[in-house]
Amino acid sequence: MTDATNPQSPDAAATPPVTPPNPAPAADAPYTPPAPPAYQPPAYQQPSYPSAPPAYGASTGAPVQPAPGAPPVYGSAPSYGAAAPKTNVLAVISMIASLLGFVWILPLIGSVGGAIMGHISLNQIKRTGEGGRAMALAGVIVGWVGTAISLLIIGFFVFFIILGAAASSRYGSY
């Protein structure tokens, strides 16, 4: 005969052992709640703060700002906004020379010099990333326009001088 308690039966390996049911609580016993599950609160780590502030006058690695009216400290930037890029000096000179050539203070030399310096400064600005590109372009444009106007005016003067010399030689003196 085979049953669940007989270990030699072929079904014994396939069926789990039978556990006795829990006894029912007595009707007159007081209610006891089940035990809460084991709960571990998360571990809190205390933030770490520096032990003490540095002493007055001690170096903390931050840049030191000079007193108002004092000369600036080497290597420090002003505290108000980012520093503007350095303007190319040749761009400024190009614009000034072109304008001086355009208003006939240095008629041809200023215009040609301003245009050439403008081209050189545009190349330097592209290579170094300095500021002043608009001034360099203004120097190039005003320089070449001033050169063209100067050459036209000089050409008209030469034309009228040659015309006048030819007319005076046709009408010789008596």
UniProtKB/TrEMBL annotation:
Residues 41-62 have a biased composition (Low complexity). The keyword DNA-binding does not apply. It holds the Pfam family DUF4190. Residues 31-40 have a biased composition (Pro residues). Residues 1-62 are annotated as: Disordered. This is DUF4190 domain-containing protein. The chain crosses the membrane at residues 89-122, 134-167. Residues 90-152 form the DUF4190 domain. It comes from Microbacterium laevaniformans. Keywords: Membrane, Transmembrane, Transmembrane helix.
